[in-house]
Amino acid sequence: MRVLVAGVGNLFLGDDAFGVEVVQQLLRSDRALPARVMDAGIRGVHLAYELLDGYDALVLVDAMAHGEVPGTVSVFERSWDEEGDRTTRGDGGAHDLDPESALALLERLGGRVERIFTVGCEPDEICERIGLSASVAAAVPPAVKAVRDLVARLASAAAGAANESTREVKRCFGDSSRPQS
To answer: N or C: fewer beta carbons within 10 Å in the chain?
Structure first.
C-alpha cells in the first residue's frame, strides 16, 4: 500500500503550522516510516501533483477547528467517494490551495486517492505570528505517534491483517490525545 503523509499549513499563522511541524519531526526522526512524508505547507498544487503518482491512502496533518479543547488531536477518515467540498477556493495559485482545493485539483487532473485520513489538532490561535501556541506545541508528540500508529495499521492491513475500519481508528485515537484540564 502506498501512503502519503502530508503536513499542511502556513508557518506565518501561528497554530496553522501544526501539520508542518509534525511532518518536520517525522522527517528528522531516525525511525523509518513505511510512507512518503511530505511537507506540503501551503503548496496545494504540489500536493495534488504528488498524489498523481498513485497513492492508496493520504494522511493529511493539519490544524483544524472541530469543536474540541485547543491541543486535542483527532483522527478522521473518509473515502474518496464520500461527499466533500471539492471546490477550489482562492485564485488557484500554487500558494493558495487548502487541502480540499488540492483534492479538487487532483480530481480535475484525473487522479484520486481511495482513503483519506486527517490527523487534526484543534488550534488555539491562528494569527500572524511564527510559532505554535503552548497547547498546540504540546500536541505535536501525540500527533507524531498517531501518524506512526496509523501508517503502521495501514501497512499491516495491506499485508493481510484485519481490515481497518473508521470505527477502529476513532476508538484507537479518539480520546487518547485529548488535553488534560
So the answer is: C
What pLDDT score was predicted for residue 180? 54
Q: Does residue 40 sit in helix, strand or coil? A: strand
CA distance linking residue 117 with residue 76, whole number of Å? 5
Rounded CA gap, 117 and 33, in Å?
Answer: 16
β-strands 115-121, 73-79: how paired? antiparallel
Which residues partner with 7 through β-bridges? 39, 61
pLDDT of residue 2: 95
Q: Which CATH architecture has domain 3-173?
A: 3-Layer(aba) Sandwich (3.40)
Beta-sheet strand order (sheet of 3-8): 36-41, 3-8, 57-63, 115-121, 73-79
pLDDT in tens, 113-161: 989 999 999 999 999 999 999 999 999 999 999 999 999 999 988 876 4
Contact status, residue 20 vs residue 63, Cβ threshold 8 Å: no
